Amino acid sequence: MTKAEVITKISEKTGIQKDDVTQTVEAFFKVVKDSMAEGENIYVRGFGSFINKKRAKKIARNISKNTAIVIDEHYVPAFKPSKSFIEKIKNSQSVKELAPQD
Questions:
Q1: What is the mean pLDDT of the chain?
Q2: Which residue windows are transmembrane per the record (predicted)?
């Protein structure tokens, strides 16, 4: 599902104009990005957490040049779903139908 499809669904479910929903969704994403860039994590009860995960310093290999590269410690954004979100997906019949059968 694309962002445009999400906006359309929200507009249909709430009766709010698409332009207003678009502005709200864009503002939400901007707040998430700006807050995380400032080192803040965002917790949405019943949905999940947007967190900054710390990656340790490590040595990697450039295969084409056969040289070692040092990758410094850094942070990457991550999403951790809540327990209720995970349970909803686990119990979803639609997702079970998509899973490959053994």
A1: 92
A2: none
